[in-house]
Amino acid sequence: MAAEHSCSTCGREVSDHDRHIRFALPDPVLNTAEQHHAPGSWLSHDEPNTSVMMQIQGIGAFVRALLPVSLSEGHRLTFGVWVAINPAEFLQTFSTWWAPEYADLHLEGYLANAVGPWGLLGAPVVLEVKDIEHTPYCVDSEQLDLADVLHKEWPHEILDGFPA
Q1: 1, 10, 58, 133 - which has most CB atoms within 10 Å?
Q2: What is a single Pfam family found in this protein's UniProt entry (predicted)?
């Protein structure tokens, strides 16, 4: 019976193959003493883990996004990342986020988290809404390493580097 729930390739539980890893804070915020408690900081919700937007005085404006990684055998690893956006676009992004226009939201920014074995902190990224029930998805990048992460299939053994 256990074999029905185990991967034929690696022996791990099949449920371990489709994972979601959510970053609590953007790396530039995480690396400060006050983090999101700095004076003048704003979060869309009570805590960073539930927030979809934040603006930290002197550091920047950030939105949540999903970074999907296709894995072999049809599996997926999805990172809930923070993306730094132009602070001049923050107010418009905020007003669109909970409005019908959200479906057409298109943003460009920079990854604000180092992601898995690839790093990618600061890589330019394009965001688009694919599902109005989710935060925008990272869909493309002019940075080749991030473009590879987004568009290539990776061996699902890469999961060994992440806690279950």
Answers
A1: 10
A2: DUF2199
Rounded-to-10 torsion of CA 66, 63, 138, 132: 70
6-31 mean pLDDT: 75
* Total domains in the fold of the chain: 1
In a domain, 15, yes or no: no
**What does pTM read for this prediction?**
0.87
pLDDT of residue 20: 82
Tokens of 21: 């890893």
What are the percentages of helix, strand and coil residues in the chain, rounded to 5? 30, 35, 35
> Looking at residues 128-154, what average pLDDT do you find?
96
In this structure, the number of other CB atoms found within 10 A of the CB of residue 19 comes to: 17
CB 135 within 8 A of CB 151: no
Asked, for residue 10, whether it belongs to a domain, the answer is no
